[in-house]
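pasting for the record
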Amino acid sequence: MSFALSAAARSLLIFAQVAAEMLALGLARRLGFGRFGAAVFLPRGQHRALSRELADLEALTRRTLYMIAANAGPLPPTEQPAARAPRPVPAATRPESHAPRAARLPKFRLTEPQPRQPANTPPAPTPLARREDPIRATDLIPAARLVRRFRALTGVFEAPEHHILRMRHLISAAPCAVLNLPAPQRPPARTKPGTAAHLARLLEAPCAHLERLVLSEAEARAGTSDGPEPPILRLRSG
C-alpha cells in the first residue's frame, strides 16, 4: 500500500531534495574534493564540524528517501524482480572502469544511528606521558572516514532509484528500524535556517506521521490490527 502526500508535504520534499544536493556541493569543497581526490588530513576542529554537518545531511537525505519510498509503498522481497545472473568474466579481461559506479561507492546507511548510551564506568586515567602533549583543535587527523561517508552520500544523488528501492524493501522488512525521530514531547532543537539540520527537523513531522501509517499497515497485514485503512497523509502548512 502506498501513502499519498499532500501538496504541502510534496513541496517540502522537493525543496529538501534540491537543498540536500546543493549543501553536498558546498561540503565537497570543504572536504577538499577535486581532480586529485580529497583531503587526507584535516585539523581536529574542522574535522569535528564537518562530521556534524555530514551527519545532518545524511539524516536529511535518509528522511527524503523514506518519504519517497513510503509514498511509493513498501515492497516485499517476494515482489522484487529476479535478476539474471551475470555471465562470469575472467578478472584479467574485465576492466575496472566497466563496473557500475554505484557498485564501487560505499553503501549509504538507510537506518538512522541509535543515540550512544553514557558509559557506566569512568574513563581510564590518561598516562602521564600523554599529558605533556594536549589535544589541540589544530592537530591533523585522518579524514578517510569522512570521505567514505561523503562518497556514500553522493551515491544516493547519482543513483536515487536504486536507494529508493532499497528503502522500500527495508520499510517492508523492518518498518520500525529505519527512523530514530525525537520524542514528540521534547522541545525542538534550535537550528539555523537553510542548514541540513534545519531541513531535517522540518521533515520530522511528516516522517513521523508516515511512520505511524506504515507501522499500522504492517500490523494490519500481520493480523494484529483490524482497524480501518490508515488515512492519507495531510501535512498542515504554515
